[in-house]
Write a sequence for this structure.
């Protein structure tokens, strides 16, 4: 997500995440870690992480999938931990294996949760659900101003269920189809979509990887995320209101309704809603992990896919049925973003390895101890405009600083919306830079960073006021 940043900023962007770690390395590690921050093995692990993350930064330039360097980096870091533990009679090899299994289990739950969510989104895409939405909007002949607000509102609410990447791509297709080359409108509308999609994902456990991680770590329950709905709405509305003043007048020509939902598309949408309900109910009342409900939902989707395949097969003549492949969930799963999923593995295991060595405990004491939780959470959220918010949130969860409920909601908010400050700060911004073919760029987004920053500040202040009774609790 950093690949469009100016060249001279790139190395510092990756190192900035690690500054608190390096700055604290001279302190003494606590007893809950291996205390390797002053050991050559600890230095080597930190160097491996920096190099692997820099290779992610230069992904576009090197044409190297981002999962490869972080997976190799994770293997290197844990090899160092295992070698040190095996050679230390006071530790023994079981220390490394136990720590690795604990972190790997966290990733496994996240992995299968995401697989199910991606499968549902891909299935709805294959059934033309989102194409039908695009066609419905383009045929209505909306003016530039109404289109700006409609795509923003839809992005805000859709991203609470879908991920911000999928939401932004759906809404960008609407804008591109309607605006037809009006670069001024496209640039502003795309910024609005990015901000709305990131803000919408912050107030729902299903809206972003970071909120899902907070939910799985039991730092906030499902319905407690709704408490940052108002701050998230403010985060989007403030820059949207300012940008709307620069919109061109008039309206583009209306398009045509050229897409219909395929057989079973609406039922799959209903099954996705049912899957969410099962997941939340199982978590709240049965105390089962979220992945349990999601896997149950995948079973329902697989069962219904058989029904879709049978119905579609009925439309073919008997002699042509042998060539019909049908609707298959396994084909849908194969199209998942495997590079992204394996990138999560590499990042989570690498950060977990640094935590095992003691770096994140030192960072927690240095950052949260000196700045205090409010300023530390605001700083971490701002940093997510440069560095991916997933390692930032996972680092905070691994640090596990002593914070009240209001502060955990604050870091959820800031990590979710901080990426909107720059176009490279979120998957939504990076994807739309590619989809716009030069009509929405890093610098066109940068022109409105001041307005987005006002929304960021306003959302924090609103949260401190709106949820004041959750601080100190």
């Amino acid at each position: 997500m950093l690949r469009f940043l100016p060249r001279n900023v790139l190395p510092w962007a990756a190192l900035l995440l690690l500054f608190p770690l390096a700055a604290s390395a001279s302190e003494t590690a606590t007893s809950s870690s291996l205390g390797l921050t002053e050991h050559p093995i600890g230095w080597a692990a930190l160097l491996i992480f920096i190099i692997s993350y820099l290779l992610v930064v230069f992904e576009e330039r090197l044409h190297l999938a981002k999962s490869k360097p972080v997976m190799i980096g994770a293997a290197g870091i844990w090899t160092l931990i295992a070698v040190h533990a095996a050679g230390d009679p006071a530790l023994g090899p079981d220390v490394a294996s136990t720590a690795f299994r604990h972190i790997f289990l966290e990733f496994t739950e996240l992995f299968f949760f995401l697989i199910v969510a991606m499968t549902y989104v891909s299935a709805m895409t294959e059934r033309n659900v989102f194409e039908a939405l695009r066609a419905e909007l383009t045929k209505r002949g909306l003016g530039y101003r109404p289109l700006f607000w409609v795509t923003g509102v839809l992005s805000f609410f859709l991203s609470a269920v879908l991920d911000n990447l999928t939401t932004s791509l759906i809404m960008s297709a609407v804008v591109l189809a309607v605006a037809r080359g009006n670069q001024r409108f496209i640039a502003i509308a795309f910024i609005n979509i990015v901000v709305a999609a990131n803000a919408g994902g912050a107030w729902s456990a299903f809206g972003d990887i970071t909120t899902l991680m907070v939910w799985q770590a039991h730092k906030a329950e499902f319905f407690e995320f709704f408490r940052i709905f108002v701050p998230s709405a403010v985060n989007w509305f403030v820059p949207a209101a300012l940008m709307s003043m620069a919109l061109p007048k008039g309206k583009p020509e209306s398009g045509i309704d050229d897409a219909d939902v395929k057989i079973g598309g609406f039922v799959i949408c209903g099954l996705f809603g049912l899957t969410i309900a099962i997941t939340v109910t199982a978590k709240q009342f049965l105390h089962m992990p979220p992945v349990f409900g999601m896997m149950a939902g995948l079973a329902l989707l697989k069962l219904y896919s058989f029904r879709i395949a049978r119905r579609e097969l009925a439309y073919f003549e008997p002699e042509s049925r042998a060539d019909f492949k049908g609707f298959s969930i396994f084909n849908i799963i194969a199209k998942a973003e495997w590079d992204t999923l394996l990138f999560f593995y590499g990042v989570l295991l690498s950060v977990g390895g640094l935590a095992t060595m003691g770096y994140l405990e030192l960072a927690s004491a240095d950052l949260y101890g000196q700045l205090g939780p409010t300023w530390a959470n605001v700083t971490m959220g701002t940093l997510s405009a440069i560095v991916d918010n997933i390692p930032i949130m996972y680092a905070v969860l691994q640090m596990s600083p002593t914070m009240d409920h209001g502060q955990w909601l604050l870091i959820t908010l800031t990590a979710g919306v901080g990426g909107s400050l720059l176009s490279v700060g979120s998957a939504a911004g990076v994807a739309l830079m590619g989809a716009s073919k030069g009509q929405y760029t890093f610098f066109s987004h940068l022109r409105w960073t001041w307005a987005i920053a006002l929304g960021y500040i306003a959302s924090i202040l609103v949260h401190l006021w709106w949820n004041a009774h959750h601080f100190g609790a």
In short: DSSP finds 22 helices and no strands in the chain. The radius of gyration is 23 Å. Residues 112-334 form one domain.
